[in-house]
């Protein structure tokens, strides 16, 4: 391995020291310690952005503030945004990169050192990398140069230099360039975390400088904009411009008054770019002692006072965000404490492992029963409007059962009979939507879709079926009397009609197993929490084995339930069959009689007195009906008997599959997958196989505990730094009605008892303001 690269940073200690103060440093150090938990963006650290018109002296202002030299000659430095990010950290490091505007791509520079004179060289290199060469079609870039410097004993601060606004287009500055400059400024100015330094030049008319209106647009309340007046030496002694700017800095001008006020700087004059910072500050102080600007408040002039003012502004910004920061820290702290609880206590000894598994088994049994019995009060089930429908097992099974039964009715028959008499109704005990699936309830839609794979039955007319069955009856006659149905033919026809039952029921069982297993897996995952190793072991050694065994049991039970119907030797109960058959036959014959009478004697149904029917005609009609119902092989009876048997058996079959197979062999046993009694009987070896901690869990627990420690420390520091919140006082209304006020902090129970006799306590009213 190569040696670690040593980074060297040398910044102006005087400038940085003036930018910081002890109160802000404590808060910034706290926030920096939180950043390692990836919650550093809980509060946006303040950034100072410098905006102004071209040639207003923006870069000189930045250089004066930070002690870092910005290019001030030519226009190279104003062609893109430059972020100078200074962060307090134990290790010194320099990172330079270009962040592309149109993607997440960033291009890094190799830098190991940074001092106050390094930035112009970096900006020159970045200008070339962005393609902003002389003669290039690109005048400005939306990419951002980010220079990040970390090290001990420096304040946390972000300074942003932006291209200057310009009014008119030139050969080098197009209309598109003006849009780019405005967009870049807007990106930073609209951020609430940005402190806007609106730089105006005293040698130009204030009304003609774009920055004033731009600052008003993005900070309409004017509470985060600080005006900076530059080049006061060029305003012209006694000129209107000088008078105007003197009014500004004295807060005597109402239109452009700012809550943070205005400040005046006298930076290096052109040609003196390499003047030292000390000489620059000396020249500035001399100017303010002798000019008209000497009459303004010292707090509103000079770079030293500006740094101190910015320091106070930064502290105020941080304190303003403290309530939100504290709330977010508390939220993160609570989340990590819950994560620790989900990992469980450290466990090395067998008893620790046993207690850990006992807790899992007890919670599993309780919640499994809740899911089976439809009690969804625990957070695991997601509440009334939660999106964890797959966890509400009983509700899911009931809808699946309904879809299973509906599928048996609509698709569980080999051939569907189209009755010659269309007036024959459907079964009265089935909902209408079963015969028009588009009208099915919405809550059943996804469950019915599961069974779409099964084809709809083949249609056959009653007359064609009768003709087919007559041929079969003739070929399979037994000892029955002529005109009576062949019982064996009924059973064989029934056996053909129920052929789809096996596939539908088998598929239904697969769905039940899938839903139940998913429920159990989610439940164990929820209970065990972040300990993925234990969760995987329990799922593999208990859950998978349980469901593999139950799958065999269920399929065996299905064959047992299906056998009487598949082999056609299981007739229904006599009374039920006789009653249902009689109802079916009566309904069929009644409908035929009514239809035939209506066809032969229409007047009888129109004439309410029945004058159209005579004894001879009625006798002839009944004779015709009787002759029409006669069949050599009793085929109508065969069809009625078979379909009666089918209807009775279908409901019984569905109930047996649901109750004897699913509920009895699977659902009722779910809670036995892992029980406390199993855990009690486990050997030490088995306990370690299931519940021993992995190295990842130990590491994760240590990491979370470390994060909790940092969060608690940060929370404590933030709460200490929060301005005191007064709650007012307590007012006592005595029996006489007089009102007295006492400081809240000294009003304790003993004091109250002294002020108000206990015998009069019922006459006193304590009101907290």
Give a brief outline of the structure.
This protein is of the alpha/beta class and 769 residues long. The protein has helices at 13-19, 22-35, 58-66, 119-129, 175-189, 210-218, 240-249, 277-290, 303-343, 350-373, 393-411, 445-450, 462-475, 487-497, 500-528, 532-566, 574-600, 602-606, 615-629, 635-665, 676-681, 684-691, 695-721, 749-755, and strands at 8-10, 47-52, 81-88, 93-99, 106-109, 113-115, 144-151, 157-161, 194-201, 225-230, 262-264, 415-418, 458-461, 729-733, 739-743, 765-768.
Could you explain how this protein is built, in words?
- Helix 12 (445-450) links the parallel strand 12 and strand 13.
- The chain is built from 24 helices and 16 strands.
- A nine-stranded mixed β-sheet has the order 5-4-7-3-8-2-9-10-11, with helices on both faces. Strands 15-14-16 form a three-stranded antiparallel β-sheet, with no helix packed on it.
- Helix 17 packs across helix 19.
- The two termini are 67 Å apart.
- It has three domains: 8-323, P-loop containing nucleotide triphosphate hydrolases (Rossmann fold, 3-Layer(aba) Sandwich); 364-678, no CATH class; 729-768, no CATH class.
- With 769 residues, it is an alpha/beta fold.
């Amino acid at each position: 391995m190569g040696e670690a690269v040593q980074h060297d940073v040398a910044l102006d200690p005087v400038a940085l020291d003036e930018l910081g103060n002890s109160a802000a440093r404590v808060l910034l150090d706290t926030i920096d310690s939180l950043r390692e938990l990836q919650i550093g963006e809980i509060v946006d650290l303040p950034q100072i952005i410098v905006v102004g018109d071209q040639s207003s002296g923006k870069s000189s202002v930045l250089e004066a503030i930070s002690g870092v030299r910005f290019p001030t000659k030519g226009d190279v430095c104003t062609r893109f945004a430059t972020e100078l990010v200074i962060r307090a950290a134990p290790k010194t490091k320099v990172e330079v990169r270009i962040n592309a505007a149109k993607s997440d791509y960033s291009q890094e520079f190799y830098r190991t050192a940074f001092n106050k004179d390094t930035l112009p060289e970096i900006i020159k290199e970045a200008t070339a990398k962005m393609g902003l060469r002389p003669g290039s079609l690109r005048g400005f870039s939306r990419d951002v140069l980010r220079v990040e410097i970390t090290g001990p004993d420096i304040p946390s601060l972000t300074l942003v230099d932006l291209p200057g606004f310009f009014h008119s287009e030139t050969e080098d500055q197009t209309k598109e360039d003006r849009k780019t400059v405005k967009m870049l400024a807007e990106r930073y100015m609209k951020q609430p975390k940005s402190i806007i330094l609106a730089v105006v030049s005293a040698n130009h008319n204030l009304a003609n400088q774009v920055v004033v209106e731009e600052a008003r647009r993005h900070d309409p309340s004017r509470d985060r904009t600080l005006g900076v007046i530059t080049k006061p030496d060029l305003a012209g002694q006694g000129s209107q411009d000088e008078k105007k700017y003197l009014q500004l800095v004295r807060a005597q001008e109402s239109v452009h008054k700012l809550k943070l006020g205005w400040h005046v700087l006298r930076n290096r004059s052109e040609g003196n770019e390499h003047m030292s910072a000390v000489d620059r500050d000396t020249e500035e102080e001399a100017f303010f002692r002798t000019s008209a600007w000497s009459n303004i408040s010292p707090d509103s002039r000079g770079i030293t006072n500006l740094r101190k003012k910015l320091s106070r502004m930064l502290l105020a910004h941080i304190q303003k965000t403290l309530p939100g920061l504290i709330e977010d820290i508390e939220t993160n702290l609570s989340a990590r404490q819950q994560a620790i609880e989900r990992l469980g206590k450290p466990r090395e000894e067998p008893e620790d492992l046993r207690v850990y598994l006992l807790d899992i088994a007890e919670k599993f049994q309780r919640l499994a029963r809740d899911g089976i019995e439809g009690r969804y009060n625990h957070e695991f089930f997601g509440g009334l409007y939660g999106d964890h429908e797959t966890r509400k097992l009983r509700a899911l099974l009931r809808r699946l059962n309904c879809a299973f039964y509906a599928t048996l009715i609509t698709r569980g028959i080999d051939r569907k009979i189209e009755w010659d008499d269309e007036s024959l109704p459907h079964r009265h005990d089935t909902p209408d939507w079963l015969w028009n699936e588009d009208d099915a309830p919405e809550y059943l839609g996804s469950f019915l879709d599961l069974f779409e794979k099964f084809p709809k039955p083949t249609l056959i007319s009653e007359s064609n079926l009768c003709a087919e069955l007559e041929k079969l009856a003739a070929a399979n006659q037994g000892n029955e009397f002529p005109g009576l149905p062949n019982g064996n033919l009924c059973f064989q026809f029934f056996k053909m009609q129920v052929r789809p039952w096996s596939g539908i029921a088998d598929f239904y069982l697969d769905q039940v197993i899938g839903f139940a297993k998913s429920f159990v897996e989610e439940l164990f995952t929820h209970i065990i929490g972040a300990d993925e190793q234990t969760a995987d072991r329990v799922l593999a050694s208990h859950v998978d084995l349980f469901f593999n065994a139950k799958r065999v049991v269920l399929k065996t039970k299905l064959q047992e339930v299906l056998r009487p119907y598949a082999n056609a030797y299981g007739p229904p109960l006599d009374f039920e069959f006789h009653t249902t058959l009689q109802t079916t036959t009566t309904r069929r014959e009644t409908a035929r009689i009514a239809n035939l009478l209506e066809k032969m004697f229409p007047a009888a149904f129109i004439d309410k007195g029945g004058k159209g029917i005579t004894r001879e005609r009625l006798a002839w009609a009944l004779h015709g009906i009787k002759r029409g119902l006669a069949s050599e092989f009793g085929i109508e009876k065969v069809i009625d008997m078979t379909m009666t048997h089918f209807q009775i058996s279908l409901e019984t079959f569905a109930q047996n599959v649901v109750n004897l197979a699913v509920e009895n062999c699977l659902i009722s046993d779910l809670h036995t997958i892992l029980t406390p009694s199993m855990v009690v009987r486990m050997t030490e070896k088995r306990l370690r196989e299931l519940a021993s901690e992995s190295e990842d869990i130990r590491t994760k627990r240590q990491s979370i505990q470390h994060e909790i420690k940092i969060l608690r420390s940060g929370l404590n520091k933030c709460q200490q730094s929060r301005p005191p919140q007064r709650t007012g006082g307590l007012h006592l209304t005595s029996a006489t009605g007089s009102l007295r006020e006492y400081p809240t902090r000294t009003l304790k129970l003993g004091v109250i008892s002294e002020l108000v006799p206990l015998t009069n306590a019922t006459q006193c009213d304590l009101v907290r303001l």
